[in-house]
User: What shape does this take?
Amino acid sequence: MASILVVGAGPVGLTAALELKRSGHEVTIIEQLAEISQLSRALGVNARTLELFTPSGFADRLINAGRVIQKAHVWLKDEKKVLIDMNNLEHQYPFILSLPQYKTEGLIEHALSELGVKVQRLTHLEGFTQSDSSIVATVTQNGMENEITANYIIGADGAHSTVRKTLDIGFRGKQYPETWSLADVEMTWPYGDTDANLFILDHGIANVIIPISDNRFRIISNADDLFGSLPKGTTVGNIHWQSLFSVHCRIVDHYQEGRAFLMGDAAHIHSPAGGRGMNLGIEDAFCFVEKLNNNTLQHYNTERRPIGESVLQQTDLLFRGLKTKNPIIKLIRNYIFLPMMNKPAVQRKRLWDMAGLH
Assistant: This one.
């Protein structure tokens, strides 16, 4: 069995550590943060992620902690144009699970601790070197510098990955010009708290509203006046947190170099359109463990990078179509693309993509 240093204790790094430990490998996982962030960044857990966690029984823990969403509605201003019904997905999990990222991380970290692995927090990777048989990483913990030796290193340390920068791997792509708002709020409104809703408004404005729990919602919007852009009849109560963010679309030139491997946001970042980000990274983690167990790690990049590139292309197209101000593209979107989304064959393909089923 191998020894692996996992850098980053977000959902991707935690998943990698959990599955590696379950497979009998020696795992060390380090994280700069002192504790799990309570900001619920990623939200949707898709069918593919639940499918991957099913053999271990962990999928049930996630489902029991989250909120099942089976329908999504697309509105053009205040007119409903599309109903996406996940019940039409022929899969054991015909839904999207709404579960804040901090809860997902907490559940995985608890499961990892049950196997005797504790996240080494307040620990920063300074850099590493590698040979034909091992890597030697230099880390700082509590002001003290020490070395960790392992057979492999995993960079699951986010968009500003130290592992990726140490390897000097290109992270090519673009940043979209708009600033977006993200908020978790308690509110009452005319659309209930069971389904997801996407509102396409004038001037390239879009609002995505997803229920988290009873009367608590996630709002994603590029409106200057976030709450003023909500539908009539909406009353916003307690605002749990709110932030601004920029959206990037980037992917690494390659996912692996020697004994170092990249996954999650360290390897690819894209718009939240389609809800694939966290789930795509979790798939990376499962793929790495499978290939390590099968002694086929040389194929990790050739399998994962084309999938990552495909997801980036899909989300870029959706994202640009959603926020476009171009009158011709708006006509195509409003009168061709949206009506087509109601056709069963088209919707089946879209459901398959949303579920992460390749």
